[in-house]
Amino acid sequence: MHIFVEIVIILPLLVLCYQFYFFSVNSKGIQRQNRCQKLGIVFMTFGIIALVFKTVPIVFFGLILILFGFRLISRGLDRLEKNIYNPNHEKDLVVSSTCNTEMIEADNFHITSIPNEN
C-alpha cells in the first residue's frame, strides 16, 4: 500500500514536470536558453535528491528527472546564431553528380553543399 501511495503522489508531479519541460523548450531565443538551463539544473538536483530515498517509485522518478535535466541543459547550451559553414571541411560534403547543390534542413540547421566542379 505504501508503494501505491508513492505512485499516486509521483504521477501528478511527473505530469507537472513534463509541462514545465515543454514550456521551457518551446520558448524562443535568450528566454529559451535561460529557462532551459535553470530548469535543467533544478530537475537534476531534485532527481539526485530522489535517488537518496531508495524506494523503487521514487528512484524511477529521480532517474526521469535526471534525464529531463540532461535534455534541458543541452537545449540551454544551444547557440542562438548558428553559422556552421567551414571552408576547411568542403571535401566532407557529399555532392551528387546530377545536381549542383544539395540542402539538408533540420530545425534551425541548414547545410548547403559546394557546387560540382565537373
Strand line-up of the largest beta sheet: 1-2
Largest sheet: 2 strands, antiparallel
The CA-CA distance between the termini, in Å, is: 74 Å
Q: Evaluate the radius of gyration.
A: 21 Å
Tell me about this structure:
With 118 residues, this protein is mainly α. The protein has 2 domains: 75 residues; 37 residues, no CATH class. Helices cover 58% and strands 7% of the residues. The chain contains 3 helices and 2 strands; from the N terminus they run αααββ. Strands 1-2 form a two-stranded antiparallel ribbon. Strand 1 and strand 2 form a beta hairpin. About 7% of the residues have low confidence.
Descriptive terms for the model:
2 domains
Write a brief structural summary.
The protein has helices at residues 2-25, 29-51, 56-76, and strands at 103-106, 109-112. It has 118 residues and is mainly α. Strands 1-2 form a two-stranded antiparallel sheet.
